[in-house]
């Protein structure tokens, strides 16, 4: 296992990532409309709801008693986001705000999701 100070640093980084990502749903809402598959209903609701979930799950990850549960919820959330990533692959190239999402970038996001899922799984299994 990773030594305790490094474990805590990475835990805080991971949790902060979700809190900031969740806040971004409220600050840059228009960007999320671009990557929402057309077949999903209520885009606005889903964008704000997923933002709230990311913030809540990030906070729950920092609480020892809720860490395992938060990690599972994060994994489920990341799996639920896969259709948006597949839609991005199908849609590429396109502009996401000021960023050009090329097919390479869209494809690269999928392994990144697996990394984030693995990171959550680590905190699920190694809660100290």
UniProtKB/TrEMBL annotation:
Transmembrane intervals: 12-35, 41-62, 69-88, 100-122
Keywords in alphabetical order: Membrane, Transmembrane, Transmembrane helix
Nucleus listed as a keyword: no
PANTHER family: DOXX FAMILY MEMBRANE PROTEIN, MEMBRANE PROTEIN-RELATED
Full protein name: DoxX family membrane protein
Phylogenetic lineage: Bacteria, Pseudomonadati, Bacteroidota, Sphingobacteriia, Sphingobacteriales
């Amino acid at each position: 296992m990773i030594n305790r100070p490094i474990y805590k640093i990475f835990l805080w980084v991971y949790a902060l990532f979700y809190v900031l990502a969740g806040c971004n749903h409220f600050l840059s809402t228009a960007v999320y409309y671009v990557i929402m598959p057309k077949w999903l209903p209520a885009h606005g609701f889903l964008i704000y709801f997923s933002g709230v979930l990311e913030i809540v799950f990030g906070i729950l990850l920092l609480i020892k008693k809720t860490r395992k549960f938060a990690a599972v919820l994060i994994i489920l959330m990341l799996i639920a986001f896969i259709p948006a990533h597949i839609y991005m692959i199908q849609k590429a190239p396109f502009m996401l705000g000021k960023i050009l999402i090329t097919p390479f970038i869209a494809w690269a996001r999928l392994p990144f999701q697996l990394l984030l899922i693995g990171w959550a799984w680590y905190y699920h299994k190694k809660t100290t």
